[in-house]
Structures are given as structure tokens and as C-alpha cells.
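call fold(seq) -> C-alpha cells
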Amino acid sequence: MAYPLPLQAARVIANNDHPYLNALMRSLQPVECPGLGTHAVDQYLRLYYDPVVATKWSPQELANVLYHETWHVINNHAARAEALGIASHGRYTDLALAEIWRIAVEPPANEPLRQENLMLPGRPIFWQDIKGQPASRLFGATEYIDSLPANERFRAAGSNILPLIPCQLLG
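ret:
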């Protein structure tokens, strides 16, 4: 599938801003996902995008979102979820921990943007949002999940979190 025009513009900006990630960004395959409300990436380098959202965000915001999504790939979040038993073959197996997982993997994907003073649309989740600690005390998503008391692992996730099931599984 060809990149829709808003994503094409964003990819050009992102590749200019982060040329060292050019090959990875060019490998992302767009998958239209109406109603997703955001963008997401999976372990197969599919970039899920909501066409309405893609037209609402500025080209620079979209470029920053693409950069953010590459950090999910770089941090190998999909494989780590499988190693923890939260997912198997691209599908969540433990829905309670999946909510926590999706919160926990946002800070490592957002921190590089914060360090470069790049803005994301909405309200991005940073380390201090989930742990109450300054970003200088970084730790991984696995450690975050392990550090939660059992009763907190199952509390409801915030409103800035992606749906559990990618759009291709909804139909």
C-alpha cells in the first residue's frame, strides 16, 4: 500500500530530521485503521494509522509520531511483550497486563522526543507520569511491570492508550 499524502510529507520530514533512521522508517508499511484515534506499529513493521487523525495533525506532528513509532521498534517492544507472556504471535494473551504494558512502553518511545524538544499530539506519557520519578532515573518497561504491586497491575489504563486489538483483527 502506498503512503497517503499526509504520511508521505511526515516521512520526508522525519527522514530529514533523523536520517540515521531512514531505512527503518522506509520499512514501515502503512495500514489504514479508521477509528484507531492515533498511530501504532507492530513487530511486522506495519504502521497502523487513522486517516482522520492523519489529516488533523500537522506534518511535523506526524513526523514526530513516526519517529516515536520507530522507538517502539528499536526498543523491541513486541518481542519483549512475548518474552513476558503478555503477547503471543502478535496478539495479547494477558489482557490485564497488556494495559499496563502499553502504558509502560510509552516513556522509552517518548523520551528521545523530549530530549530533542519535539512535540507529540495529545498528552504523551513520560517516566514521571507512571512512576513519579524524574526522567533521569530511567528503567525499562519490564522493570516497571515487575515493580508494580499486584493490585496496581490490574487497574484501568488511562485515556491515551491504544486499543488492545489492532484494526485488522476488529472485523
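DSSP finds ten helices and five strands in the chain.
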